[in-house]
Amino acid sequence: MADKVLMKGNEAIAEAAIIAGCRHYFGYPITPQTEIAAYMAKRMPKIGGCFLQAESEIAAINMVYGVASTGLRVMTSSSSPGISLKGEGLSYLAGADLPSLIINVQRGGPGLGGIQPSQSDYFQATKGAAHGDFHMIVLAPSSVQEMADLTVKGFELADKYRMTSMVLADGTMGQMMEPVSLDYDIKPMPEKPWATTGTKMERFHNITNSLSLVPEELEQLNFARYEKYKTIEEEEAMFEEYMMEDAEICIAAFGIAARVAKNAIVEARKQGIKVGMIRPITLWPFPKKPFEAAAEKCKQFISVELSMGQMIEDVKLATGCKAPVTLCNRAGGMIPSPQQVLESIKEAANGGAK
Amino acid sequence: MKTTSFLFAGFGGQGILFAGKFLAYKGLLDGKQVSWLPSYGPEMRGGTASCGVIISDTPVGSPIVSNPDVLVAMNLPSLDRYEDAVVPGGIIFVDSTLIERKVKRDDVKVYYIPATKLASDNKTPTLANMIIVGKVLDALNDFQEESVVTALKKVISAKRADMLDVNLNAMKLAIEN
User: Fold this and answer.
1) Regarding beta strands A282-284 and A300-305, do their DSSP bridges make them parallel or antiparallel, or are they unpaired?
2) What pLDDT was estimated at residue A2?
């Protein structure tokens, strides 16, 4: 195994993307993810790749559309307000069934907001990135190692299902350094017979397009896409369970919130409270099964989030209202402290569910 | 099973982030679990800079250091801001060249190191950070020259290899005093 190195989460994403075969990066700088662009600017020219600082986020996402059409691995990255600008392009990518990887290192919102970490783009990423019926595969890293691992995974899933993958991180994940091992066995890309690579006068030309003016046909395209989504929901949900074997209280948290919650769980266990955690790694597809199972035995769920409460809705749906679900949160760039989470756990242990 | 959290704080240009990165690398090379989280954003540009480092025998949970075991304060605003956050029984390292006041708490151990003066006397005015880090490792009984040198190699680029000994010597300055 390769030696572990200390890397910032943003740099780990950039290097992992290059290892996964990405040679085209388009972006526009924004805190707290600018290191991704800086890393790409430095590395891409040395390996025959293309780094381009676009004139705007909108330009960058449409450049992604262009390269994705040729079947090559391509990515862009931004932070919350920049991702909103990319929305139209995300919908076009979905409409044209093009694979690509988008990184969102979230910051507090709404509006231009702040620059401190946040998870308040959960709804946007999992339910409503833009107009039309579509989903992206949404991966939520909780360590610098996962920033890299899920970048590679994101490219693989995007190619496998011909759709956009998004890595949904936050400012702490992007800025922090942790040991990381970038030792990957990269599988060859699947065949892409649909790609616009030039016909060499040997086949009919391919077109990547999201315009479809005949409603009967457009409906069929939507039906087919949702059949694919069903497969993904069944096969690709990822999660980690932490101390769930005997848990009576279940925390739901992803990303940095899950890291904070782990501290609180360790402390609560010392006080004899049986608490565990389900950490979704894919936010779409949401890992419903572990929550369905936990709902059979846990008396309360606590959703820990850096938002006003967004994932909590999916936790409520997955647990089918069999047990109360409360929210433990901070917003606008603030992070819940382990003490705050511990208080929520104690309240739940004392039957204080609301 | 031990977990130690460090908070380095000062102003931009003092090498606060570098000192933290060195310590994190040393932890990694010593086979520990480590994390390093900087403050980022507008305050970095000329204002205060800080970073939290956690070195642990077990996987690091939250990388956020709100209540450090060890505080390194390299200017007065940092001491004012973080003195009360240190855990009881913790340690505070103060650059006494730049901070004239004493630590008010009596439930922590305090080292006063005239790091900025030592650095300029030693004709390495930019290495006050490493002078304090040397003292931190010494106070924690963690100054093994071999792993210090290996960690320095990780944070000093090959182009600046001449700075290795300079850094190492700086790290010993406050220990000998």
Assistant:
1) unpaired
2) 58
Residues in chain B with CB shorter than 8 Å from the CB of A338 are: 61-62
Q: Which sequence spans correspond to the domains of chain B? A: 3-176
Chain A residues in contact with B41 (beta carbon < 8 A): 31-32, 115-116
First-to-last alpha carbon distance for chain A, in angstroms, is 49
CA distance B108 to chain A (A): 22
Domains of chain A: 5-235 (3.40.50.970), 240-349 (3.40.50.920)
The pLDDT value recorded for residue A353 is 54
A171 CB near a chain B CB, below 8 Å?
Answer: yes
User: What percent helix, strand, coil does chain B show, rounded to 5?
Assistant: 40, 20, 35
Asked if A262 lies within 8 A of B41 by C-beta distance, the reply is no
Determine the Cα–Cα distance for residues A180 and A144; give it in Å rounded to an integer: 7
Q: Establish whether the linkage from the previous residue to B77 is cis, with ω within 30° of 0.
A: no
Q: Which residues pair with B6 in a beta bridge?
A: B53, B70
Would you state the CATH architecture of domain B3-176? Answer: 3-Layer(aba) Sandwich (3.40)
A321: pLDDT strictly greater than 60: yes
H or E element, residue B168: helix B163-176
pLDDT of res. B1: 75
List of E strands, A270-312: 275-280, 282-284, 300-305
Chain B positions with Cβ closer than 8 Å to A: 21, 24-25, 28, 33-38, 40-42, 60-64, 66, 154
**Rounded percentage of chain A residues whose pLDDT exceeds 70:** 99
| b/e per residue A89-123 (b: at least 16 CB within 10 A) | bbbbbbbbbbbbbbbbbbbbbeeebbbbbbbbbbe
Mean pLDDT of A195-204: 94
Q: What is the pLDDT of residues A322-349, one digit of tens each?
A: 999 999 999 999 999 999 999 999 999 9
Q: Is the pLDDT of residue A1 over 50?
A: no
With beta carbons less than 8 A apart as the criterion, state whether A239 and A285 touch.
no
Q: How confident is the model at residue B46 (pLDDT cuts 50, 70, 90)?
A: low
- Give the CA dihedral A231, A235, A237, A239, nearest 10 degrees: 170
Q: Report whether B3 contacts B66 (CB < 8 A).
A: no
The shares of helix, strand and coil residues in chain A, as percent rounded to the nearest 5, are 40, 20, 40
The pLDDT tens digits for A298-313 are 999 999 999 999 999 9
